[in-house]
Amino acid sequence: MNGGKTTGRKLIVEGLWHNNPVFKQVLGICSTLAVTNLVLNTVVMCVALMFTVSLSACTVSILRSFTPRNIRMMVETLIIGFYVIIVDVLLKAYWPEMSGNLGPYVGLIITNCIVMGRCEAYGNLNPPGRALLDGFFNALGYSFVLLIIATFRELLGMGTILGISMPYFGGPHWDKWIIMVMPPGAFFMLGIVVWVLRSIELRREREKK
Amino acid sequence: MIRKKSWFPVLYMFCVTALFSSIVIGFSRLTGERVEANQMLAFEKAVLSVLPGLYEEKLSRLEMHNRFVESVSEPDASSGEAYTLKEGGTIIAYAVPISGRGFWAPIRGVIGIKANGRTITGIAFYEQNETPGLGAEITRDTFRNQFRGKEISDSGEPINIRGPGATLGKSDVHAVTGATQTSSRVEKIINTALKKWRTEVAKNLRTGE
After folding, report:
1. Assuming Cys at both sites, which of A73, A208, B20, B117 could form a disulfide with A82, CB separation 3.0 to 4.6 Å?
2. Which domain holds residue B96?
3. Is B55 part of any domain?
4. Contact: B132, A71; criterion CB under 8 Å
5. Using an 8 Å Cβ cutoff, are A33 and A187 in contact?
């Protein structure tokens, strides 16, 4: 069972860093741009994505020995859609304000390439437990990049974090950069974050050699 | 082997779809009532919050609904299709529904007006999908509280939304910084509804005499 442990750790490192969905695979960028203007919205979106990716990959993995190869993508889309609708309905019923805030973006998780990517690349070929872990840590890797972006956008654009006014940035001396909470701000931040994270990775690789 | 048959993928897809769809249908049936109740409650909460002396933060969902049913009278022709708050048969305040196009999606709300038909007692939006952190600030107290005590003007537009920093008259409020589109649309929504309501109430008063 020693082997299982190392694969577990490898999954974590791969999902969070070496194969990070946002800055390495560059997947799911559309939602990265759309929901990161307030930290709270981002957190909810990330939780929804973690739920969808891990369970979809797990379900795909359970069905993998029965699913005919030629229709596997249809089945995957169906499974992803199933989990996304569940999340959407749950939000509508129990957190209507948040459902309103996120608008159509919850439904659009279906089209988030990370979900499909993990089902295809991992869930299809590996046992359910590992698929669940892989999905979860990929979603976590996505989440941490999104949270970095969201924190900077909300802080610079609104002077708050999670709606709480921050010292200096919330005060009169900070002229709020409104553009940060608008769509262009997302492009700037995403570009900068990918640049910084990739530079760190590059330096580490060079040091290894 | 059944899996080698050419019709197996069709049968498989059919079964998987049937399975997942029935779960989703069952699930949305279970929560459907709650989703509808949420929408109704959002409206009732908005009405209560714009009428004087009805809204309390700590009310539970059921108490809120009960209070609405007890105190608010349904709209009729004599109130110009506005919900009313009555005391001993005489109207103390009106709650005029307002709606129109926002920047991204329809905006719906309620505006509260005293029996004199001039003084505003409050404003609330129960449906909007404006940019989080910008246009969506119209639902915040900082924007809404400005309206309380303002007088609807007889000449020109009933209410004016002025740019940030402008000096305000007794029927003026400040716009949301960085949300010019939302602000001007909200101004239009409010004014269209108020003008229409005023002519209807005036018409009914005249025919009533």
Report:
1. B20
2. 43-208
3. yes
4. no
5. yes
